[in-house]
Design a protein that fits this description.
It is a single chain. The chain has about 180 residues and is an alpha+beta fold. It contains three helices and eight strands, in the order αβββββαβββα. The chain has a four-stranded antiparallel β-sheet, with helices on both faces. Strands 5, 6, 7 and 8 form a four-stranded antiparallel β-sheet that branches. The longest helix is centred in the first third of the chain and has 31 residues. The chain starts with a helix and ends with a helix.
């Protein structure tokens, strides 16, 4: 395939995806306007349109729109708990040489110690969630604040930005 055709296809796909995300965000915002007795003071529409979260300071309420069938509106005093959760995965990298050498020298205990000494413990973040426990809801609400689907290093800018956005919303809700 000619490189220009490939480039044109990629551009068309990007434009179509952007329109899809834009429509998804607009639909969530329309659903937010239909929440009864709720006047948004501030709101956040997640970048890919997965959810909208909004607060109504006058009525001390929070509204969360995830989908047509998953709409929540509750008063501040109905929140039992609000927290930020890092969904992480920890693994060892580079442990094989230490395991082999430690095993030759000290058997099973030596291989375990050798593996730990020569390895780097890597923590990857899968997502950052704003976790809400609501008194009248059987399920907890977990709102994902990280854009990327790829696991990120715990110190990456994406993780820090997601954590800061989740913290900001936690503070907004707590200040109602």
């Amino acid at each position: 395939m000619h490189p220009l055709v490939t480039l044109l296809i990629i551009i068309v796909l990007i434009v179509l995806y952007s329109k899809y995300i834009s429509n998804k965000k607009k639909k969530k915002q329309v659903l937010l306007t239909r929440v009864r007795n709720f006047v948004p003071t501030s709101k956040f529409v997640e970048d890919s349109g997965r959810f909208v979260i909004s607060v109504d300071k006058k009525n001390k309420k929070v509204a969360i729109i995830i989908s047509e069938s998953q709409k929540y509106c509750f008063k501040k005093d109905e929140i039992i708990d609000i927290d930020i959760i890092l969904d992480t995965e920890t693994g060892l990298k580079g442990a094989t040489p230490g395991v082999i050498i430690g095993g030759l020298i000290g058997g099973v205990k030596g291989s375990a110690i050798g593996g730990l000494i020569t390895s780097n413990i890597k923590t990857k973040v899968k997502n950052v969630y704003l976790h809400l426990t609501i008194s009248r809801s059987p399920n907890n609400i977990n709102l994902p604040f990280m854009r990327e689907a790829v696991k990120q290093n715990v110190n990456s800018i994406l993780v820090k930005e997601a954590y800061e956005r989740a913290s900001m919303w936690k503070d907004k809700i707590n200040s109602l």
